[in-house]
Amino acid sequence: MADEYRIETVRTGYRTWTARNDRGAEVRIAAADDADAQPSFTPVELLLAAMGGCGGLVIDRTARAVDHDGLRIVVEGASGPEDDGRIGRIRVSYEFELPDTNPRAADVFARGVRLTHEKYCTVSRTVEHGAEVEALLPDGTTGFRAG
Q1: Confidence band for 90, pLDDT divided at 50, 70 and 90
Q2: Whole-angstrom Cα distance, residue 133 to residue 51?
Q3: If you compute the radius of gyration of the chain from its CA atoms, what whole number of angstroms results?
Q4: 112: exposed, middle or buried (Cβ count in 10 Å: 0-12, 13-18, 19+)
Q5: What top-tier enzyme class does this entry carry (predicted)?
Q6: Alpha-carbon distance values, 31 to 3, 12, 46, 104 (Å)
Q7: Is residue 29 a contact partner of residue 19, using CB atoms and an 8 Å limit?
Q8: What is the pLDDT of residue 147?
Q9: CA–CA distance from 114 to each of 35, 58, 62, 111, 122 (Å)?
Q10: What whole-number distance in Å separates Cα of residue 62 and Cα of residue 53?
Q11: For the chain, what is the mean pLDDT?
């Protein structure tokens, strides 16, 4: 069975939105330069947070033989004029001290990171490989399609 995802994003004010999932979680979205809408995430920050969170969940499963309670995942994105409104470069840094008590820790953790990006993290794999995107208008017609 294929996985399906659904998020509802609702306008809550001028340049402020709230995204909700079916389990009741919410996140506030707004422009970074709108002081009245803070604290909030920008859409790009949410994309980077999703990559870090997805990577962390995969590491929890694939590298469970290594104690990684202190793991911190930092995701940085950058774009330049040549990137035409996209993030041109993303760096994901997995930061923590490998335990001395497990001689295989470095290999196990490296395998977990590799599997995150090669196989299991839906978010990073979608960013890395792209996805078909279809935008539907209120009358049900397609307003945009790519991929």
Answers
A1: very high
A2: 19
A3: 18
A4: buried
A5: oxidoreductase
A6: 30, 13, 12, 44
A7: yes
A8: 86
A9: 39, 10, 10, 5, 13
A10: 14
A11: 94
